[in-house]
Amino acid sequence: MELIIYGTFLVLSLVAYAARQVANKGDEKKVSISNINFKSFQKSFFLVYFLALLGDWLQGPYVYKLYAFYGFKESEIAVLYVAGFASSVVFGTCTGPLADLWGRRKMAIAFSVIYTFCCLTKMSPNFWWLFIGRVFGGVATSMLFSTFESWYVYEHSERHGFPSEWIGITFSITTFWNGMIAIFAGIISNVTAETLGFGPVAPFVVALLPLVVCGVLVVNTWEENYGDRKSNFSGSCWEGLKIIFSDEQVLLLGSVQSLLESCMYIFVFLWTPVLDTGTTPLGMVFSCFMVCIMVGSALFSIMANRGYTEANILKHCLIMISVSMAICCYTARPGATNIDTVISFLAFLVLEVAIGMYFPAISYLRSQVIPESHRANVMNWFRVPMNVITCGALLCLHVETISNDKRIVFGACLVLSLLGTFLCNRFILAFRDENASKKGGIDIENDVKSGKKLQ
Question: Which of 406, 410, 403 has its CA nearest to residue 73?
Fold first, then answer.
């Protein structure tokens, strides 16, 4: 198994490099290489965001192993994971309206402070300190996946006035480098925890540095921007919910996101117990997953350059995840053989490629359908059903039958991904109709103007 993982990492790295080269040629046709203002703006965002991602990814490979190292059972570890997801539902939902009202720059600084505290709690073997850390980690994760994107979209469209088509290019690049950062984080985690023998707490200590530097850079380089500041906090919360249920496109896109990301976060918990045979190099497995994300981001650019819409790419992601979950419904059985474990590993790689395609696609689609005034608010509401579903799935692991046969959980993920595919088809139709009506309105307006000129 160990040899297969290292060989897979090498092959995937070559594929990722080749795919990125092909993707770059298409992207250069969209954005002039001489557009210095856009490149400079991108770099100011990338530097801060990549440090935030590095701080997040350094914690990824050894969360489960750290809890096991402290002597907690799988059911107790599941409770700690649930604490993080439940925190995102209860407290994380508030971060969106706060970002729109209080300022997205201030929330990015708060992210740095809160996530730093979360890392510090990992140094204690006390269950309740770890529980508190997971609660704060859930809040910080909500900030990471809403505040930074909301800040960027506002600056891109409102302050700088760059074309909306370039948003997809930026998020394709962030997804690619997200994979690179995660690979680097996986290697650093593996070296500090295993090679240097500092144990599974070491990656959390290392994560403190990028998180602190991230906060310092936000203070010194970012300008403040806001959403709708006319409403009060509670009014802003409910306004975001009203926007979701009053707009079919927003509701469908949010539903698809919740279903797909539920599968993703359940997978985050399951991959370690499914693949860990005792000698499995978890850091390298994690790095393989991240290379697949890089491959997926490059495939997104290639498909977009060849005429695929972001909505259709999203549909392809859901189909790939469905296939992956269907395979695991067989191979993740109790008493799985080495061949079963290898096949599960390959199925997980397919899922990660789909995730790499998903992030730039969903980022672009959110930028098109969510109103700027409540962007961070609405994005955090999208995460509520995802966290509820994920919590429910992890709590089911307290049931001995489900804990011993994880195929049941993978079967549930298969149902979620198939439902997401169905809703994505509906979103494609609604999004296409809306764009067609907008285009028709613009054409009529242009005809009227042309008629006036002729007169």
Answer: 403
